[in-house]
Amino acid sequence: MTGIAVAASIPSPPSEWASFALGPVTIHAYALCILAGIILALILTQKRFVAFGGHADAVWDIAIWAIPFGIIGGRLYHVVSSPDAYFGPEGDLARIPQIWLGGLGIWGAIALGAVGAWIGARRAGVRLSAFADAAAPGVLLAQAVGRLGNWFNQELFGAPTTLPWGLEIDADNANFPLDQEPGTLFHPTFLYELLWNLAGVAILLLLARKLNLRGGRMFWLYAAYYTLGRVWIEALRIDDAEMVTLFGVTQRLNVWTSIAVFVVALAVLVYLAVKRRPAEAPSVYLPGREPKDAVGADVDSTGATDTGAKDTTVTDGTAAADAAGAEPPTDRDDAGRSVSNASATGGHASDGAADARNERGNLSETNGS
User: Fold this and answer.
1) DSSP structure class, residue 237
2) Closest C-alpha to 133, from 6, 1, 272
3) What is the Cβ-side half-sphere exposure of residue 196, based on CA atoms within 13 angstroms?
4) What are phi and psi of 158, to 5 degrees?
5) Residue 246, H or E segment
């Protein structure tokens, strides 16, 4: 019986797959992965924001501020955390704006992206916490998809390994470690983070169905979950990074940042759980900034419209009968005899009937009503 060969490694894409020419324009796979992640994140965020009671257009109004700020912040953090490639002896400052070659730091993206989101949210009249809660699972999804770009670029891998899912890196690739033999396999840390993030998206969405994760709770839960995984994944990486020594321990800057963010996120979650009870259905809009419909009526978080119309109350049995097209009721005199509301000869209401109606409802009589 012929044995079936089982792959003992994960191959990297050929280097020519990292980019391709489309006329005079060069398209990079890394950029396409980032773009795909952003689109999926926006779709998921929009769906959640609408479920919160917001309008779908507000998500795009905020995104046009948050996305550029996030990309700039992510790039700046990467440059600071990996300075040798730009400021080192063989560094090249011209590479700083070339994000298509790889290198976006999530902490800078979140920090500066939050500034952009705040600007967009203020302009749209939306609470930043509501948008952050709606966007948190989508941000994690975007991070997962974006990690595929690292695979195309053959970057951000970990230490050598003999595990059957070890990652192949071309020996002539600029990222291949000089102190390793060709054919060495490496931990696919991009894949570890991709799977960790996808699992996180599923967990966050499941918890959102069971718990009221509003008022910033979903965002801080995302931050705690992501950083918990990033600590051990980052510790496996061997690419160049800024090293920091704290408490006698030397680790990558991203490891210390992940630990710090995790501690802060956990503290905020505890505070929100103990000190602040979640509102039953908090509005996603700032006070007085609720959207208006075409006639100027307020639209509440459920989409219902208040047109300002007042309910009318039927206070007289005669009015109710008239509205239904029924014959007017008859009154009775002191002896209990029936008295018609209109005379047989002239069609005018009798004085006694008019007085009786006035006593009951104090309504004016109108001919032909």
Assistant:
1) B
2) 272
3) 20
4) -105, -160
5) strand 243-246
